[in-house]
């Protein structure tokens, strides 16, 4: 395994601190990044210490640490020290009354949430969700979506992308090329979408196309039968290369959704290899034991020159705006409190 070029892999850990075996493993294998969740995030000082510990283990001061921080029910910084942020559905409902006010409130919220993460050393909250939502959509999306209208999803998603970049936090649009037509939860089973190419291009794919300059994108574990009847997007060269890179023209970093999700099949090493072979720049497993991280690392490969160039291009777009997290969060809540009931 290369000690100079990081592996094309994000790893997860079970606890709020790395143990000696994890430190030794990450020092030896050099995974590109660490993914953390509620189990790893307890207090600001603890999070900063974990970030420093991982970076020391891999020997890179800029090694990225990601989490899931969208707002609503998907926000892993949800303990006492941190404010609770609203879901994307809330901002879409505000847009029903006043689109400009919704964009203003969403900008404030995204600035606050991005700053909160940046101050902790977390490089991204893996947001925004650009999936559409319909009556038939799996409940796994639900309030995480801005709604069924691709133009509204793109317009509000643009606010999130630009606002996160302004405060130095990396936006990651998900779940490309769209989870909204899936009626099953890809955490639990393999969803198959059977809509035509024309319908997908006009609906689910459109927000991603409109925000095609977003520096990172997370690939879904959904089968799009019009393109590939057998393989979910994350392990499909047809979707990753012909659709996302070709038809949509995406040039940023592609990271898989979590490899432990049950839409994928086979042992973890096979899932890592399939994801990277399909065209994802990086494979993600968001939790796991030391043994699982070792198995994933053995199956991974160093980041390619193309992937490294995509990563660096994204870094160059990060701004340095500073905001008061609590003040902006309070302003957002005041906007919602003043809405007619």
How does this structure look, described?
The protein is of the alpha/beta class. The protein has a seven-stranded parallel sheet. Strands 4-5 form a two-stranded antiparallel ribbon. A two-stranded parallel ribbon has the order 7-9. The chain has helices at residues 20-29, 44-58, 88-97, 99-120, 150-166, 197-202, 206-210, 237-247, 268-278, 290-299, 305-315, 325-337; strands at 7-12, 31-35, 65-66, 69-71, 74-75, 172-176, 192-193, 216-219, 223-224, 253-258, 282-284. The chain is globular, with a radius of gyration of 19 Å.
Q: How can the largest sheet be summarized?
A: 7 strands, parallel
Number of helices: 12
Q: How are the strands ordered across the major sheet?
A: 3-2-1-11-10-8-6
Helix content: 40-55%
Global mean pLDDT: 96
Q: Name the overall outline.
A: globular
Taken in chain order, the helices and strands follow as EHEHEEEHHHEEHHEEHEHEHHH
How far the N terminus sits from the C terminus, by CA atoms, comes to 59 Å
Using only C-alpha atoms, the radius of gyration works out to 19 Å
Low-confidence stretches: none
Structural class: alpha/beta
Strand fraction: 5-15%
Counted beta strands: 11
């Amino acid at each position: 395994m290369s000690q100079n070029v990081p592996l094309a892999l994000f790893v997860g850990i079970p606890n709020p601190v790395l143990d000696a075996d994890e430190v030794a493993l990450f020092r030896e294998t050099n995974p590109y990044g660490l993914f953390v969740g509620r189990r790893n995030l307890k207090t600001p000082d603890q999070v900063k210490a974990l970030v420093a510990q991982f970076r020391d283990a891999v020997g890179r001061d800029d090694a990225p640490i990601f989490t899931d921080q969208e707002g609503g029910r998907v926000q892993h910084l949800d303990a006492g020290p941190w404010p609770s942020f609203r879901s994307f559905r809330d901002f879409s409902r505000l847009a029903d009354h006043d689109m400009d006010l919704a964009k203003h409130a969403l900008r404030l919220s995204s600035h606050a949430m991005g700053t909160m993460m940046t101050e902790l050393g977390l490089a991204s909250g893996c947001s925004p969700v650009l999936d559409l939502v319909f009556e038939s959509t799996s409940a796994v999306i639900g309030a995480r979506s801005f709604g069924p209208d691709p133009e509204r999803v793109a317009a509000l998603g643009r606010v999130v992308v630009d606002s996160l970049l302004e405060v130095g936090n990396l936006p990651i649009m998900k779940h490309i090329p769209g989870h909204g037509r899936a009626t099953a939860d890809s955490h639990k089973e393999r969803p198959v979408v059977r809509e035509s190419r024309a319908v997908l291009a006009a609906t689910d794919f459109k927000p991603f196309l409109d925000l095609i300059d977003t520096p990172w994108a997370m690939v879904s574990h959904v089968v799009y039968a019009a393109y590939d009847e057998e393989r979910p997007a994350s392990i499909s060269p047809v979707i990753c290369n012909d659709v996302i890179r070709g038809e949509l023209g995406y040039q940023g970093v592609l990271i898989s959704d979590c490899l432990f999700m049950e839409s994928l099949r086979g042992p973890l090493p096979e899932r890592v290899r399939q994801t990277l072979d399909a065209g994802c720049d990086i494979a993600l497993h968001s939790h796991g034991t030391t043994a699982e991280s070792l198995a994933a690392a053995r199956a991974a490969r160093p980041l390619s020159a193309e992937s490294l160039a995509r990563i660096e291009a994204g870094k160059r777009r990060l701004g340095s705006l500073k905001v008061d997290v609590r003040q902006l969060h309070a302003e957002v809540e005041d906007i919602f409190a003043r809405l007619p009931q």
